[in-house]
Design goal:
This is Lipopolysaccharide biosynthesis protein WbpB. The chain is of the alpha+beta class. Helix content is 18%, strand content 45%. The chain has one domain (2-50). The chain contains two helices and three strands.
Amino acid sequence: MLTWVFGDVKDLIVEKHTVDVAKGFLELSQARVNWFLSINEDYLPESAKLQGKNV
């Protein structure tokens, strides 16, 4: 969907890739996107941890 809205991919850089974390940069024709995906609860904000939102 991003390519439909913001155009073709110019560059894709994966900065980190482990079992529980992926991070990188995506450059499209009309947008630049820093992305971060994780299933590690250590990356949750403190407010979410205090409310038990780790599921």
